Amino acid sequence: MTTLTNRPNTALIVVDVQNDVVQRGHERDAVVANVVSLVERARSEQIPVVWVQHSDEDLAKGSDGWQIVPELAPSDTEPLIDKNYGDSFEDTTLESVLSDLGVGRLVVVGAQTDACIRSTLHGAITRGYDATLVGDAHTTDDQSEWGAPPPGQVIAHTNLYWKYQSAPGRKGGTVETKDVDFGNSS
Predict the structure, then answer these.
(1) How many CB atoms lie within 10 A of CB 77?
(2) Burial class (CB in 10 A: 0-12, 13-18, 19+), 156
(3) d(CA 12, CA 183)
(4) How much is the pTM?
């Protein structure tokens, strides 16, 4: 359904599953376990896995906190996108990597729900991609001391509104890990 021509393929996009990013994430271990299972499934089905890794003044590139969590290991053949902004497309090579892979549909997992996940989902659909969020494979920290809802509510709200997200010729959607279909329809 994507509006991108000649892009029949799907990719799993793993956003910021880094030590310091998910350290205090809501249900961190369950979320990381779901991401691990999706990476394994994608690889077994020959679906591209694209890794996104954030760095900024609080998360120094190359630091222990910047590293991908030990439960996950990108293979040498899988693209790794360095980013400095919430939207994984903004000022990165993600678009050219996806174009080279013929990808028009994204399955998105990772962190933080209310920052990089939302920004990446919106960035994807704006750029013509179909973008499916895996509802039990993203997490966020507790920001309630600054007025945000508790993290479980942030995650639930994001899952709810993305389930019905669409744009002309494009669609979003939310599924659980067990229901992910890497085929051409979400």
Answers:
(1) 7
(2) middle
(3) 11
(4) 0.96
Q: CA 128: distance to chain centroid?
A: 16
Q: Measured between alpha carbons, how far is 103 from 155 in angstroms, rounded to an integer?
A: 26
Q: Do the beta carbons of residue 54 and residue 17 sit within 8 Å?
A: no
CA 135 to chain centre: 11
What's the sign of the alpha-carbon dihedral 25, 26, 29, 34?
negative
Please, is 92 exposed, middle or buried when counting C-beta atoms within 10 Å of its C-beta (0-12, 13-18, 19+)?
A: middle
> Any bridge partners for residue 111, and if so which?
139
**pLDDT tens digit string along 54-88?**
999 999 999 999 999 999 999 999 999 999 999 99
Q: Give the integer Cα–Cα distance in Å for 143 and 99.
A: 36
Q: What percent of the chain has pLDDT over 70?
A: 98
Burial bucket for residue 37 (CB in 10 Å: 0-12, 13-18, 19+): middle
Q: Is the pLDDT of residue 51 over 70?
A: yes
Question: How many angstroms separate the most distant Cα atoms in the chain?
Answer: 46
Q: How many C-beta atoms lie closer than 10 Å to residue 96's C-beta? A: 11
